[in-house]
Design brief:
The protein is built from seven helices and ten strands. The protein has a five-stranded parallel beta sheet, with helices on both faces. Strands 2-4-3 form a three-stranded antiparallel beta sheet, with helices on one face. β3 and β4 form a beta hairpin. The longest helix has 28 residues. The structure holds cobalamin.
């Protein structure tokens, strides 16, 4: 089955639930306004199932209604995982055999963002979802700079730690802060390092589009529900590929005939 539609009470009935806030006090007219908005968005018929005033002059709504849209699964584009998931043991063994040095990782929340729980979940020993963070892996050397780190500081700390990878978390998305901060961060690293020496740039947070790597100038974007093992597996994959590429380049330069050099 490649065409699907939402399900509420009976299979394929098209029923969905939608929530939003309007900047008006809660009364009958506000509920009518909510229905009007939902109808314009394609819910037909739309019903208010929950409305609650949130402070003065704002109302939060939940509406339930039918949409007629179909989803074509053949046209769904997502960032598929294109690297193998490794166990911690395999990660450590691959680093030892293929990279032959510990992998230096520097992480931070940048800008004014103080939401450190996400980056801590990935880096700290404690980890998340039953998985230990990167500090648990013998072959990762982890520096976690915590909250509200400026981009120039991050660049300097990455340089001092000879970082192979920089992991940045951005949770606050107000006025697209996460996008602006990430672009500023990737531009600063590109300016500060020659391409072959620039650390891998990973950014994560619950509201990123994982397909936006080119636009943001980063190597990989990790979204909601990321686990440390996924990040460790990606790092091993990307760094071993990078090392293999630079070894091939060095070899071809050495074996090139003098007139080609
Ligand atoms: C806890 C929390 C706080 C705590 C943060 C404590 C701390 N040390 O982190 C405190 C109370 C300080 C706080 C403050 C604020 N908060 Co707050 N906070 C939350 C809350 C409830 C949970 C966030 C969280 O911890 N999630 C759990 C972690 C594990 O999930 P995660 O961050 O998504 O991380 C995972 C993935 O995204 C990914 N990941 C994340 N980063 C990275 C990085 C890399 C490199 C990788 C690989 C992966 C990765 O992996 C993680 C593990 O799976 C959310 C609401 C919510 N329910 O989500 C609001 C929320 C994030 N906060 C919000 C706001 C507005 C604020 C304040 C501005 C409020 C205010 N007016 O003061 C301040 C801002 C402070 C600041 N300067 O940043 C809004 C953000 C809205 C927006 N989209 O911009 C939210 C969504 C609440 C809301 N609905 O309004 N907050």
């Amino acid at each position: 089955m490649t065409i699907v539609r939402p399900y509420g009470d009976t299979t394929g009935d098209g029923m969905v639930q939608l929530s939003f806030t309007l900047p008006i006090p809660h009364d009958k007219k506000a509920e009518g306004a909510a229905v009007q908005l939902a109808t314009k968005m394609g819910l037909e018929p739309a019903t208010v199932v929950h409305a609650k005033q949130m402070g003065e002059g704002f109302t939060f709504f939940v509406l339930y209604g039918r949409v007629h849209h179909l989803v074509d699964l053949n046209q769904v584009v997502v960032a598929e995982r294109d690297f193998p998931m490794l166990t911690p043991k395999e990660v450590n063994a691959t680093i030892r055999s293929k990279l032959r040095k510990r992998v230096s990782v520097v992480g931070a929340c940048i800008g004014t963002d103080a939401h450190t729980v996400g980056i801590d979940a990935i880096l700290n020993l404690k980890g998340i979802a039953g998985e230990k963070g990167l500090e648990y892996y013998r072959e990762f050397a982890v520096v976690n700079l915590g909250a509200q780190v400026s981009v120039p500081d991050l660049v300097e700390r990455a340089r001092a730690a000879k970082a192979d990878a920089v992991l940045v978390s951005q949770v606050v998305t107000q006025r697209d802060a996460h996008l602006h901060n990430t672009k500023a961060m990737s531009a600063a690293f590109r300016e500060a390092f020659p391409p072959e020496r620039r650390p891998l740039l990973l950014v994560g947070g619950p509201r990123f589009d994982e397909l936006a790597t080119d636009e943001l100038g980063v190597d990989r974007i990790f979204g909601r529900g990321t686990t440390p093992r996924e990040v460790a597996s990606y790092l091993v994959h990307a760094l071993t590929q990078r090392t293999a590429l630079s070894q091939r380049t060095a070899l071809s330069q050495r074996t090139a005939r003098p007139e080609e050099r």
